[in-house]
Each structure stands twice: as C-alpha cells, then as structure tokens.
Amino acid sequence: MKPDESEHPIQAARKQALFREVNEQVWLLQRKWGTPVEVDFICECADETCSAAIQVATAEYQRVRSNPRHFVVAPEHFFEAAEILVERGAGRWIVEVTEAARPVVEATDPRRGRE
To answer: Are strands 38-42 and 53-57 parallel, antiparallel or unpaired?
Structure first.
C-alpha cells in the first residue's frame, strides 16, 4: 500500500527516518555478532504500515547510509510526491528524499557524528 499521494514530503521523511533508525539497530547488532554478506532489513518506504523485508548486501547498505538523504525500499515502494528514484536493483530500490525533506532526514541521521 502506498501512502496518500497528498501527504507532505516532510511527514513521509519522518516515517522513513524512523525505519532507518530501526535498520541501524539491526546493523549494529549484525556487526556485534559478525557481519554477514547480506542482511534482512525492513523497507524504509514512507508507508507506515509497510513491513516488507529487503535483503541488502552489507557493502551496499554502507553505501546507502553514506548519504543521509538515501533510503532503501522494496521495489515499487517509491513515493513520487516525496522522493526521487536513484537506483533500481534486484529486490530493492534506492530513493532520495526531495529538497523539502532534506533537513529532517539529515538532522535525524543516526550516523551523524558517529562515523
């Protein structure tokens, strides 16, 4: 299910930032236990009811997290009103929030000041 297309990009970004925080906790636990080649993360789309699992290679996850405006979503979970499609891959897409949402996702970046 897609979010309401009339939803404001900042509201969508807040949802995505929450899912990103969950995935960061998964990532930290995986690093503690030994980093596997691929990790199951939750879709970081703007749909607050989504719980789709996405397998992402650890190197790719690091690449996505290097830009606080990028999020990994399940295919077709692209929210055109709030995102720009950056990349399509097998089993996952990479999206970037629009300029309006940039301050929200940068301020809530869990890696800000950590790495």
So the answer is: antiparallel
Choice among 45-49, 53-57, 72-76, 90-94 with the minimum mean pLDDT: 45-49
Domain count within the chain: 1
Does any domain span residue 112? no
Looking at the domain assignment, is residue 41 inside a domain? yes
Distance CA 101, CA 27 (A): 24
Please compute Rg for the chain using Cα positions: 13
- What is the rounded CA–CA span in Å between residue 76 and residue 58? 22
* Residues of the domain holding 81: 9-107
Answer whether residue 115 is part of any domain.
no
Check residue 80 and give left, alpha or beta (phi > 0: left; psi -120 to 50: alpha): alpha
Give this prediction's pTM: 0.84
pLDDT in tens, 26-36: 988 888 887 67
Q: How many residues are present in the chain?
A: 115
Residue 96 · residue 84 · CB < 8 Å: yes
